[in-house]
Amino acid sequence: MVTYLPISSPFIRFAGRYVDDAFGVAAGYNFFIFEAAMVPFEITACNIIITYWSDAVPVAAIIVIILILFVLLNVFAVQWYGEAEFWLALGKVFLSVGLMFFTFVVMLGGNPIGDRFGFRYWNNPGSFQEHYKTGDLGRWLGFLACLIQASFTIAGPDYVSMAAGETINPRRELPRAYNGVFYRLTTFFVLGTLCIGILVPYDDPTLKNAYEADLPGAAASPYVVAMDRLKVSVLPHIVNAMVLGAAFSAGNSYVYCASRSLYGLALDGKAPRIFTKCTKSGVPINCVGVVLVIALLAFLQVSNSASVVLQWFVNLVTASQLINFSVVSFTYTRFRKACMAQGISRESLPYRSRGQPYVAYIAAVCTGVMAFVGGYEVFLPGNWDIPTFFFSYTMIGVFPILYFGWKIIHRTEVRKPEDVDLVTGLAEVEEYTRNYVHVPSKNPFGRFLDFVFG
């Protein structure tokens, strides 16, 4: 869809353009809430990471310091946002590759204590942890718990499309970027998970202390846990600092993205006009303010365990994110039907993915089901918890309320395939594509970055 008509915030605007205006509104607010909720999540994560060194600084003080830094970076230093995020992203890549190399070396005995542990923890305590039940059912529930957590991490490929309207030669670059991001993220996630399974057992007491007891000095990173166990000096502090920087960077990015999402909704008349107000430097100040108000939810850590609060935000974000992917998949099916109804052949599209429309239907159903499954543990005997239920299922209730509320108030209708607008803005894109002349980078470092980032 986005290579056919590259526009900014496409999956939100396509939802309204190809399905129903009300559907686009619900998708837009769902995406905004998802991004805004990630801000207190990252603040909570920063606090957990910091406790590796000490718990001398009060939690509230850490939250205030981070919020002040977010204000400074997003209001007064926004012109450096892109440059800073570029180098931080590059640092994350080098960190990921370095940790994989570290795993390979130490598992073969290249560590201070000479422990050649290999795949020891796959046998003892094992590769599958029983969860709630014993036997095969317990192992299945353990796998399901991992699948739910993995659903939280699937964001990434969809973000590529957000800047489609500003991308140079989008019909050429976006497919490359999508494929690059997908395969590289998959590689990093799979290899990263493999490394963690090699380095630490699932019942490691240090990890439990970090996530269940919030004990100071407990490492929240499995890599740092392994380094401490293997008596590797200095490196744990470096890695923990880099992970802290990554969490802070992510939080700052979400402040920026969430505020711009709300700003876009306001420009389209789908949020109050007060959110269109900008500073002289172009910062949507009221939108940033709303996001930072939502970030105050991080203060839940003051009266609750940081790990519990972290899981609350994971539940909220996971449900919202899965709804977002379901929206994208369903929107594509409507786009495809519109193309068929209006005589636009699939072969004429700039990019064609395999297995459609079946893959889209499967994705829509699976992500929708996972959104409901995500908080199932709260219904198990003895597990009922109102905050957990609220954070797990709020967006599942909010999305239809937004959809039907906007639909009733504004009397919108589901668009028929033959009435869907597939041409507005298309002529400009095609003319730009015809006249564009690609100039490859002559700088070796630039070519390397093109390869790394697609």
UniProtKB/TrEMBL annotation:
Transmembrane segments annotated in the record for this chain: 31-53, 59-81, 93-113, 181-202, 237-257, 278-300, 312-332, 358-380, 386-406
One Gene Ontology CC term in the entry: membrane
Keywords, sorted A to Z: Membrane, Transmembrane, Transmembrane helix
Native species: Aspergillus candidus
Compartment list: Membrane
Gene Ontology terms, MF aspect: amino acid transmembrane transporter activity
Name listed for the protein in its UniProt record: Aromatic amino acid transport protein aroP
Pfam family, one: AA_permease
Domain Amino acid permease/ SLC12A: 1-415
Membrane topology: Multi-pass membrane protein
InterPro entries assigned: AA-permease/SLC12A_dom, APC_YAT
